[in-house]
Amino acid sequence: MTIRVFIVDDHAVLRAGLRMLIxxxxxxxxxxxxxxxxxxxxxxxxxxxxxxxxxxxxxxISGIHLITRIRETCPETRVLVLTMHGEPGYLRxxxxxxxxxxxxxxxxxxxxxxxxxxxxxxxxFIDRVFERNLLQEPTLPKRAVNHRDPMSVLSERELQVxxxxxxxxxxxQVADQxxxxxxxxxxxxxxxxxxxxxxxxxxxxxxxxDTGLLSLPVQAKKL
Length: 223
Prior knowledge:
The protein is of the alpha/beta class. Helices cover 51% and strands 13% of the residues.
């Protein structure tokens, strides 16, 4: 039986490369693709693929939010994350949202086809890089602010920046999405870091995941 695959990534060149790689195998076929989460939701409902291969960092709806929506609206579709993020925090967030597999992009050439076959059979596939990372990952210090409502601590714009940074966007990408300058983004990042007492991206991702912010879509509004 042919494995029907759907690709979600905002880079057209990467999608084309993945499509060629996947279609080169007789037991699988790319049945659709999308450049963002909003487009993917509708197309996946239409095509009902066995496996959806998705990035985490995209404009609009985040990959984490997309995983949740796929699991709710198309539960027969298994989700395989293909991302640049090799931090355990992103892995835990993706699995918590319902992903069946997680693969870092620099492993895609050797492991992607295997990963698709594994998750299509109903099993889990986790990139081997995490065998080492999870064992070596230090325990992040618990800060008092983690138990507070972030809505009461941060402004609307600071919250938007927090969500986008935690989702893996660079300062330039955040600036583009929010229609502000990179310097403005840096200012907001400094403010939220001071308010939340977070020192590293790992702590920021963990905080966003613990508070449920990592899966939120961001509405880019000019303030």
